[in-house]
């Protein structure tokens, strides 16, 4: 009996211990992506073999909570990632689970969407393209925007030569063409870590994790006016949990000018075929090697120079070899609850113009910390940019001066007994001063401080609801100075009135977002709702004080002057308030519908007319998941169609543009009385936003386990009610007014193809190709059928925008018509040559990896546009243009020409000789079509050859984890259209299209090396 009770007691104790062992415990944790350490939303977490525990879905920060038993296993899975199983042991505590991407699934590419929110590409109804850090930094360029060139379909980037841009070029960037007649209002929106910024050129490309380009207003609908031209979404690097490391890299490149406009080297300085020692033109006799007088006597001694053809282009002696040195150091690390990334960068640039230099020193800190349900992140980036360049002037005289000028010798201008001294220079005309002296003594300096910061709080109220508060501050301060050294001479044309202009530009932007996120699944349906509010405040102040007639050569002080000071200050403020929302519904993860809406209220419109609404709708359908017969297809493994439509308001007005301004005018109303006159531009308080209606349709396909993928998109935008200044009758008291008129139509076709041609243990070959065709036309212009944009650039109704229109030779049956004396005759009407923006853009990239070696290059091609130059007319007049020696400076009968007789009749030319002298060639060069050329080109934009040190070389030591060395080159060669002797079609002057200025410095090519080390 005792044994019986003892057996029962033992059984009860055993059962009781099993019950205790099976007691439910609450497990908490986070799911992060293995490569980036970023949280993954929507991950399914369930208990293996225990359906009663159910399944939970991770929230916005990848967090989950679930009931389970010790000894069981968690199944963690998400579409696009390899599933994993986690054993539940007694030491479980707020564990971090990493998922690895399944690279065979194109459908689950994650992109950075509007507001910096990560989205699966299958949900998007618009086109988006991502460039990762490795591809972005292939060419090791300093400016991240230039690194994007030819890598994204539909994106066109041009480096522009600003007055101060010799070592810091400006950037013109266009996505899917032009939408506004206001040339300065066509840039896309720049967003860094979710915060919109006015400029990103100072961001260190090595700090960037990836860049996602949201194309057109459809993709950036939540940004309203700011996103009407698309958005460049930048995600900077963050630290990795338990992966502390140090990275150092150095990149050193050397650059030299190329593509100078060709110059003749047959005839030297002089006029009318006769040599002159003081002539700055090349209309003298032929070079013959004689020793001749050069310039005027110096202290009674006549300088001489050998009159001979230079062994190479003498103009190259004006330029230096440019050097760019980048040093980058970064630290990163973290744990399960926090991460950090810190970087330091120093860039030193020596320009190709003598004396030009710049430096950039920057620091970034990105940090994040989790406090249970509260997630915080903070980043700050400070950059000090110091620039010292020549102002306008030096190069514009070099291409008009004779070929026997020694520019290397011209560097010795400080010697008062040298013929290169400004008081002894061979020609006293101000426009042809020694260009080296001009470069050294006309300087533009600035010290730019840029601070950008973000503070973000995200709180998870529940697995289905979280709120984000994000605030960003952008601050930039730039004191500058422009100086021109005084030169006193007894010869008036050599005098230089010394000048100084001190400037300061300050800009502050405060950006604030409050975002509420809701997401819930109902059976086969998924829903996401986002609502938010944005406040933006911009403040700008510009000041300048200048004196234009200094008293001393070496004192740049406004107090040491004659005459009055000039200058002033400008203060502007801009405010906007927006409320926005987005709702996405999904069915079985293959059909999605998204509705967006945003209401903006802006300070630049009249208070009675300053609020407007922008709606949008988009859809995406993954048909390979929906159609049973296409599932698990070995050829077509992924297929998706997407489409979208939206109507976006676009306000292109600057602050106070609708105010009637008054200015002081000397002598008004008379004498010394103070008077003010109103602006001649009438403010129009009824101005409304331009409204851009755009739709897009696309097809995305993946073949052979995504070894080959393609994305084809067609987009159409209609920008109506353009805001621009139009002329009106002066009887109104004004000569212009702001109007809502005009229309721009954009049609864009884009094709992107990527493939892995070879992939095995030793070799991998990736190829990428992108193509876009953009057709931009102006419609319904306000005054007539044309609108002048700049110089020879026009908006012409029903023509591609912008259009190049210029004077041509008078022609008959395709032949040039001359007058009875053999001189050219300009056409009565200007001719339309074509668009000044290339409609066809091609980009081709390849990356070949073989064991430890890597070869990568990027090819860029742009076709179908025209360009023109204001250099050529000056070269024709100066006798340096290569065409001016075509007939050996002798009278000639122009081939295939005709003569217009006194009675107006036109006959073939058989006996009328053209003089071929300076007057004739000057008139010839003034015919504007002689300065135009087709702007087609193909160039090797970037080349990289690298070698990674094998692991066996690094074995046995603990200092280096990885190390590599490489060769890098940019703009190594270019193939241009045969008509183009102007230069690089990609290089523009300021914010123009297809225009090469006489002030513009030539393009350069660069080569160098790169070293990377990881500790």
Short key terms for the protein model shown above:
22-stranded antiparallel beta barrel, disordered N terminus, single chain, 5-stranded mixed beta sheet, mainly beta, 9 helices, 1015 residues
Overall form: globular
Strand portion: over 45%
What is the strand tally? 59
Report helical residue fraction: under 10%
Counting H and I runs of at least 4 residues, what is the number of helices?
A: 9
How far apart are the termini?
74 Å
Whole-number mean pLDDT: 89
Question: Largest beta sheet, briefly?
Answer: 22 strands, antiparallel, barrel
Structural class: mainly beta
Over all CA atoms, what is the radius of gyration? 34 Å
Low-confidence stretches: 1-6, 8-21
Structure description:
This protein is mainly β. It has a 22-stranded antiparallel barrel. It has a 5-stranded mixed sheet with strand order 10-15-16-13-14. Strands 3-2-5-6 form a 4-stranded antiparallel sheet, with no helix packed on it. A hairpin with a 3-residue loop joins strand 22 (322-334) and strand 23. It is globular, with a radius of gyration of 34 Å. Mean pLDDT is 89; it is low at 1-6 and 8-21.
Produce the secondary structure layout.
Elements: H1 2-21, E1 25-33, E2 44-47, E3 55-57, E4 63-68, E5 73-77, E6 84-87, E7 95-99, E8 110-112, E9 118-120, E10 128-132, H2 133-136, E11 155-161, E12 170-175, E13 189-192, E14 195-197, E15 208-214, H3 216-219, E16 231-236, E17 245-257, E18 270-271, E19 274-275, E20 290-293, E21 304-307, E22 322-334, E23 338-350, E24 357-371, E25 374-390, H4 394-398, H5 435-441, E26 442-462, E27 465-484, E28 499-522, E29 525-547, E30 566-587, E31 591-602, E32 611-622, H6 623-626, E33 636-650, E34 662-664, E35 676-678, E36 681-682, E37 690-703, E38 708-720, E39 723-727, E40 736-740, E41 743-759, E42 763-779, E43 786-790, E44 793-796, E45 803-806, E46 811-812, E47 815-818, E48 831-835, E49 840-850, E50 853-863, E51 866-869, H7 871-878, E52 897-900, E53 906-908, H8 918-925, E54 932-934, E55 937-948, H9 951-954, E56 962-976, E57 988-989, E58 995-996, E59 1004-1014
Parallel strand pairs: 1-7, 11-57, 13-16, 36-40, 47-52, 51-58
Antiparallel strand pairs: 1-4, 2-3, 2-5, 5-6, 8-9, 10-15, 11-12, 13-14, 15-16, 17-22, 17-59, 18-19, 20-21, 22-23, 23-24, 24-25, 25-26, 26-27, 27-28, 28-29, 29-30, 30-31, 31-32, 32-33, 33-37, 34-35, 37-38, 38-41, 39-40, 41-42, 42-49, 43-44, 44-45, 45-48, 46-47, 49-50, 50-55, 51-54, 52-53, 55-56, ...
Helix pairs in contact: 7-8
């Amino acid at each position: 009996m005792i044994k019986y009770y003892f057996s029962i007691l033992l059984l009860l104790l055993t059962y009781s211990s099993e019950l205790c062992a099976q007691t439910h415990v609450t497990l908490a944790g986070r799911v992060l992506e293995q490569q980036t350490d970023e949280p993954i939303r929507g991950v399914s977490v369930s208990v293996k073999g225990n359906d009663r525990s159910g399944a939970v879905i991770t929230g916005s920060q990848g967090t989950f909570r679930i009931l389970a038993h010790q000894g069981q296993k968690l199944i963690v899975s998400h579409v696009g990632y390899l599933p994993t199983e986690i054993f539940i042991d007694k030491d479980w505590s707020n564990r971090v689970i990493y998922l690895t991407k399944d690279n065979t699934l194109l459908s689950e590419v994650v992109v950075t969407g509007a507001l910096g929110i990560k989205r699966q590409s299958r949900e998007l109804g618009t086109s988006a393209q991502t460039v990762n850090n490795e591809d972005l930094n292939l060419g090791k360029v300093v400016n991240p925007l230039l690194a994007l060139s030819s890598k994204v379909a539909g994106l066109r980037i041009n480096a522009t030569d600003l007055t101060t841009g010799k070592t810091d070029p400006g950037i013109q960037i266009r996505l899917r063409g032009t939408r506004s007649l206001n040339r300065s209002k066509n840039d896309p929106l720049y967003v860094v870590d979710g915060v919109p910024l006015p400029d990103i050129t100072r961001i260190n490309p090595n700090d960037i994790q990836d860049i996602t380009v949201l194309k057109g207003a459809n993709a950036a609908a939540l940004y309203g006016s700011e996103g009407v031209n698309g958005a460049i979404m930048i995600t900077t690097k963050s630290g990795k949990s338990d992966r502390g490391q140090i990275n150092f890299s150095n990149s050193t490149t050397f650059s030299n000018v190329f593509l100078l406009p060709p110059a003749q080297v047959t005839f030297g300085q002089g006029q009318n075929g006769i040599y002159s020692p003081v002539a700055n033109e090349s209309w003298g006799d032929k070079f013959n090697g004689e020793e001749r007088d050069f310039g005027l006597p110096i202290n009674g001694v006549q300088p001489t120079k050998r009159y001979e053809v230079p062994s190479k282009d003498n103009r190259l002696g004006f330029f230096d070899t440019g050097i760019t040195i980048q040093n980058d150091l970064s630290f990163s690390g973290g744990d399960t609850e926090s991460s950090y990334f810190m970087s330091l960068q120093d860039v030193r640039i020596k320009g190709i113009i003598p004396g030009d230099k710049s430096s950039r020193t920057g620091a970034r800190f990105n940090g994040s910390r989790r406090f249970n349900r509260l997630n915080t992140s903070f980043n700050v980036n400070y950059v000090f940019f110091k620039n010292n360049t020549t102002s306008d002037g030096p190069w514009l005289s070099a291409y008009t001066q004779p070929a026997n000028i020694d520019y290397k010798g011209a560097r010795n201008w400080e010697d008062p007994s040298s013929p290169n001294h400004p008081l002894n220079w061979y020609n006293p005309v101000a426009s042809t001063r020694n260009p080296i002296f001009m470069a050294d003594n006309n300087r533009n300096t600035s010290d730019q401080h840029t601070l950008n910061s973000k503070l973000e709080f995200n709180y998870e109220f529940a697995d289905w609801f979280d709120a984000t508060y994000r605030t960003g501050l952008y601050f930039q301060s730039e004191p500058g100075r422009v100086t021109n050294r005084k030169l006193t001479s007894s010869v008036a044309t050599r005098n230089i009135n010394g000048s100084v202009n001190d400037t300061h530009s300050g800009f502050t932007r405060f950006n604030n977002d409050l975002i509420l996120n809701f997401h819930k699944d109902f059976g086969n349906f998924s829903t996401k709702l986002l609502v938010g509010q944005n406040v933006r405040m911009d403040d700008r102040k510009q000041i300048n004080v200048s004196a234009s007639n200094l008293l001393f050569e070496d004192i740049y002080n406004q107090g040491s002057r004659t005459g009055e000071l000039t200058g002033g200050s400008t203060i502007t403020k801009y405010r906007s308030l927006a409320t926005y929302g987005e709702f996405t519904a999904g069915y079985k993860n293959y059909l999605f519908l998204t509705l967006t809406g945003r209401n903006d209220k802006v300070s630049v419109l009249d208070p009675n007319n300053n609020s407007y609404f922008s709606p949008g709708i988009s859809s995406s359908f993954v048909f390979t998941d929906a159609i049973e017969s296409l599932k698990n297809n070995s050829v077509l493994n992924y297929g998706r169609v997407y489409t979208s439509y939206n109507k976006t308001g676009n306000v292109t007005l600057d602050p106070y543009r609708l105010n009637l301004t008054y200015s002081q005018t000397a002598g008004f109303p008379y004498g010394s009385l103070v008077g003010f006159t109103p602006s001649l531009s009438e403010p129009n308080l009824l101005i409304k936003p331009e409204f851009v209606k755009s739709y897009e349709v696309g097809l995305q396909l993946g073949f052979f386990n995504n070894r080959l993928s393609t994305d084809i998109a067609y987009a159409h935008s209609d920008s109506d009610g353009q805001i621009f200044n139009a002329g009106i009758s002066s009887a109104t008291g004004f000569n212009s007014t702001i109007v809502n008129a005009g229309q721009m139509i954009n049609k864009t076709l884009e094709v992107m193809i990527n493939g892995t041609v070879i992939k095995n243990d030793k070799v991998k070959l990736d190829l990428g190709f992108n193509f876009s065709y953009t057709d931009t036309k102006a419609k319904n212009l306000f005054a007539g059928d044309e609108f002048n944009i700049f110089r020879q650039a026009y908006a012409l109704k029903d023509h591609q925008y912008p259009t190049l229109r210029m004077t041509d030779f008078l022609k008959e049956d395709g032949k040039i018509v001359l007058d009875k004396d053999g001189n050219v005759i300009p056409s009565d009407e200007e001719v339309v040559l074509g668009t000044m923006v290339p409609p066809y853009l091609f980009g081709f990239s390849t990356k070949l990896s073989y064991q430890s070696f890597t070869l990568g290059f990027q090819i860029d091609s742009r076709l179908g546009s025209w360009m023109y130059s204001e250099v050529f007319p000056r070269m024709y007049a100066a006798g340096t243009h290569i065409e001016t020696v075509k007939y050996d400076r002798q009278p000639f009968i122009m081939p295939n020409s005709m003569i217009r007789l006194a009675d107006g009749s036109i006959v073939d030319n058989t006996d009328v000789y053209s003089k071929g002298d300076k007057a004739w060639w000057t008139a010839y060069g003034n015919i504007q079509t002689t300065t135009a050329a087709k702007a087609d080109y193909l160039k090797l934009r970037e080349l990289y050859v690298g070698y990674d040190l094998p692991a066996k070389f690094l074995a046995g030591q603990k200092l280096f984890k990885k190390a590599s060395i490489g060769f890098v080159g940019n703009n190594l060669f270019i193939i241009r259209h045969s008509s183009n002797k102007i230069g690089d079609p990609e290089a523009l002057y300021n914010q123009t299209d297809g225009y090469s200025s006489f002030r513009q410095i030539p393009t350069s090519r660069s080569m160098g090396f790169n070293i990377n080390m990881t500790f």
